[in-house]
Amino acid sequence: MTRVAIDVGGTFTDCLVLDKQGRLNQFKAPTTPEDPSTGLMDSLEKAAKAERKILSEFIGELEFIIHGTTLATNALLTERGAKVGMLTTDGFRDELEIRRGFKNIRTSMYNLGVPPYKPLVPRYLRLPVRERTLFTGEIETPLDSASAESALNKFAAENVKSIAVCFLHSYANPENERRAAEICRQRFDGNVYVTASHEVLPVWGEYERFSTTVVSAYIGPIVSDYLMALEKRLAGLGFKGSLLIVRADGLVQSASHSRRQAVTMINSGPAAAPTAALLWGSSSGHNNLISIDMGGTSLDVSLIRKGEIPTTTESWVGDERVAIKMVDIHSIGAGGGSLAWIDSLGLLRVGPQSAGAVPGPACYGRGGDRPTVTDADVLLGYVPTDYFLGGEIPLDAERSREAIRRVSEPLRMSETDAAQAIFQSVNSLMADQVIELSTKRGLDLRDFALIVGGGAGAVHGANVAELLRIPVVVIPKYAALYSAFGMFAMDIGREYSRTHILRADKVDLKAIESLYRELAQQAIADFKEGHIQAEDLVFTRTAQIRYAGQFHEIEVPLPSALKSPGDLEEVLKAFHARHKELYTFELPFRQVEFLTFWLRATAARRLDLKMIPIAKGEANPKAALKRKRRCLFGKDWVETSCYDGERLLAGNVVPGPAIIEEKATTVVVPPSFTCAVDASGTYLLKRS
């Protein structure tokens, strides 16, 4: 059966098709911001035409579609979410606004001029109800249905579209919260999106739990409507397979589950990039990796150390605290479509604003007239005007020149110098993000390889490596569809968690095993909905542990069963070792606390994702030479050899400066690098 992975980005929608023989075919279509499903269907239309089939015939043969999208993230960041009402325990309606005293997260806590935080739910829609559950799980006050009904009357009058139910200590006993959610669903009969904190994040820390649940409620109607419409549209074309959605934690799950837990679609799409990086890095012999994914709108950076994809529960998305487990990715507005502009001090800046898919960079000829990174790349000779997306989009270099005059004239620079300044500025922005994740954490970048993805990544990757003195750059064969490739290697799965706070010297092993049995039973029931049986599930246990008195905790692997004090002792040794690895010290004399226990349930899809070797050749790549083009490297214009990526052979060595033109991206090899082509068609760039 044929399988498809689709990543809807800010500028392009990437479609990667895995056929019955294990071959991969790539397609791109412009993203349609007004309705992302249109761009998705356009990409499938291209794939169908390549197979010489009508769309309905192609879709009818698909086993599954894996889908990643920035829809949820963009809805939150652009404040396009639903009108939300919040039910909460009497006395805690301001928890969302107090938020542990945090000001706007990206400003100094000492800056008194920072505007106050604006909650997603205004105070008049945060309504208290009478109920109380203790931290032990004991229900001190059952839910007062009358107070809940009174709150719902106000929600109805205010035309609320989504409700978040957030009660104190519902992680210990969700009974009151469950009852309140049932009342909401019965009252509005499916016309209002309802979610409860024990369904989204059953862990301690009421602010983190409340904030995450409100975020899920805020984006829930948009996510749910989009997925339901997409499922209906696909079904109308004869799709009988499974629609799987990429989760923030690096797993994939059914569309029905994603509708219920909309917050798990934050960073859907970018979360797949580290998986792709790990696959390509390991195949080239590297397990310490910096992954950069530079698309048309944004840059996503992640760090993989010792082959481990990092996750975190400490994420902020804009000004909102999101405490679900997420792949640790740093994102900034630095893509091919990022706009160049001059700030109030007369300095050149790049991003975070973007030309997006509409109108796009000036060189697209679709109405854009402001300078972008892509326009600079065209003017410098790096990107071919006649082979962008394999020639689908002809580029107009003169439009790029006119657009760049908007910044070159105020700066009293030539268009070429301004283009080079834009190129260097965005490279510096990217390098700074890498430094945030590595050097500032005490890591030596010379120990890492740079894995480069995204349509614009291959143009800039080697220059970023040059700034950072990273010795090796890996540009995968399918770099332009980086995240889509990673989706094929992701497991169907879900994270389950439960807070159970106890000191290491008072651990009840039987109680922990009972807790994990309950989580496993919940996982088995959930996966059964997707026709996945218990025997197909793989369970992985971890726990968040800290020294008594610490604010932050560390996630440590647990064995499949804690049977004896000796097993517990091994876990504590692993915690001390991990603490020393992360922070350079350990405190073995200090008491240790267990906080939250996690169960990762996965069902491997066993895809035959093999790289079909390309033909072998000699070191000299002259047979693939396509043409020569003037490109600016440093201060000099150089007649640069341009190679056809489709004709390069395994074993070819391309000395810089050089350009390699692929259908979906362009690889720039600076003078200080040499590029070798491996058996899979991957480009390995090394500094001379």
Strand content is: 25-35%
Number of continuous helical runs: 17
Distance between the termini: 45 Å
What is the CATH class name of the largest domain? Alpha Beta
Shape: globular
Number of domains: 6
| CATH T-level topology of the largest domain | Rossmann fold
Q: What percent of residues adopt helix (DSSP H or I)?
A: 25-40%
Largest sheet: 8 strands, mixed
**What class do helices, strands and sheet pairing give?**
alpha+beta
- Tell me the CATH architecture of the largest domain: 3-Layer(aba) Sandwich
Multimerization status: single chain
Question: Mean pLDDT, as a whole number?
Answer: 90
Q: Cα-atom Rg, whole angstroms?
A: 26 Å
List unreliable stretches of 5+ residues.
Answer: none
Which strand order does the major sheet show? Answer: 19-14-13-22-23-34-33-30
What does this structure look like?
The protein is α+β, with helices and mostly antiparallel strands. It has 6 domains: 2-75 and 225-265, 2-Layer Sandwich (Nucleotidyltransferase, domain 5); 79-222, Rossmann fold, CATH 3.40.50; 270-331 and 443-487, Nucleotidyltransferase, domain 5 (2-Layer Sandwich); 338-425, no CATH class; 492-603, Dna Ligase, domain 1, CATH 3.30.1490; 622-687, no CATH class. Helix content is 31%, strand content 27%. The chain has 17 helices and 34 strands. The strands form 9 sheets. Strands 19-14-13-22-23-34-33-30 form an 8-stranded mixed sheet, sandwiched between helices. Strands 3-2-1-4-11-12 form a 6-stranded mixed sheet. Helix 12 crosses helix 13 (415-437) and helix 13 (415-437) packs across helix 14. The relative contact order is 0.10.
